[in-house]
Amino acid sequence: MGILYLLHLIGLIWTTNMDFAGLDLGIKAPLLVFPLIYLFGRPLANTFQVQRWFVGANAVALVFCVLRACYTLVTNLINTHGQPGPSMSGFAMSVPFFSSDLSFFLHPTYMAMYLTLALLLLLRYEVHGPWPKRLSGVIGFLLLLGIVLCASKAGWALLFVAGIGLLAERWHDRAMRRMVMWGLLAALTAGVALYAGTDYVHERVDQVVHTFREDAPSDQAANSTDDRRLVWKAATELVALHPLLGSGTGDVKDELLRVYAERGYVEPLRKQLNAHDQYLNTAVALGIGTALILLLMILVPTVSAFRKRDLIMAYFLLLNALNWTVESMLEVQAGVLFFAFFAWLLAMKGSPSSPPRTSSAP
Asked: What is the mean pLDDT of the chain?
């Protein structure tokens, strides 16, 4: 992580927008700070307690978001009652419970990532052991429901990838196998029910289906899936233009916006979108070589974690690596701090990766 930050410092040499470069370096500071804390700081006495706090905080935040959505719905119903015009549609009634309208604290893709890690941590005996089983079950259900309601397509996909990975690794643990299988079944059932019963989820899924059917998105596209395809195309053009050194630490955003304007990409320009792919974003800023270093920064520790059977670290790294293919998460504080903090926390000694097996029966 520290090497990546130093490369961004070197990128100041050929950048012109120093204001944005300073902001970017401030956002990325945890990539340097936490490795230094790991090397020179004192290890935490109980990392599992911190993990319990994280799980509990996610559950509390989700309850707040759901209550806020209920309040919004009731307020909307009261405001439209007795007013001239049509009553609220089913789509309008469901909106407060999904995606950005639900996720008050974070972008929904980031919230889904936080909830997924919280769910993986909750499955560790060292984390859920001190809690009553019913409380752990309720929290697990809340986290699972939250991932579904975030309506993040990446979040949905990664939930099932994580579930399948856990099943493969813990198949001989009967209790864990049942828990994960029931969780996946519940998520699938909830997804099908929401697709059939809510216009919002139906529309989100139909967007993906439509995207795969069309050859290329329209320059006037106005949904998140097509927006990503447009910004990926723009970012790829910039990488081809500056393959070795990139545009510079502070010029990446300016260059992307310039291409959006030249190509007539209305929504990406209006929203001032980044590359929505961390590997592409890094390549645009500092060249293909730095993007490869970023990839190795994930792949090498992941392989090492699997070899050491440090599975929670491996799952955490994969969770970030896969999310980085659809979001430039190291360009915002919510992504940088999440990655740097938990990489530090999970790397500390005295944090075994797997709970003791409670049953070896098939």
From this structure: 86
Neighbours of 261 (CB within 10 A): 12
| Together in a domain, 255 and 285 | yes
Rounded to two decimals, what is the model's pTM?
0.88
Least confidently predicted of 121-125, 178-182, 291-295, 340-344:
178-182
pLDDT single digits (tens) 168-184: 777 777 777 787 888 88
Q: What number of residues does the chain have?
A: 362
Q: How confident is residue 277, by pLDDT bands cut at 50, 70 and 90? A: very high
Cα separations (Å) of 13 from 68, 194, 195?
47, 51, 51
Distances in whole angstroms, Cα of residue 110 to Cα of each of 16, 202, 349: 30, 22, 27
Structure tokens at 323: 């999310």
Residue 235 lies in a domain: yes
Residue 22 has a pLDDT of: 95
d(CA 16, CA 202): 45
| CA-based nearest residue to 322, from 170, 146, 215, 164 | 164
- Cα–Cα distance between 124 and 171 in angstroms, integer? 15
At CA 264, angle to CA 260 and CA 151, rounded to 5?
70
206 with 238, same domain? no
How many domains does one find in the chain?
2
| CA distances from residue 194 to 104, 224, 322 in whole angstroms, order as listed | 21, 20, 25
DSSP state of 105: S
Residue 83 lies in a domain: no
Angle between helices 133-149 and 47-80 (to 10 degrees): 50
Render pLDDT for 26-79 as a digit per residue (tens, 0 to 9): 999 999 999 999 999 888 888 999 999 999 999 999 999 999 999 998 888 887
Residue type, 274: N
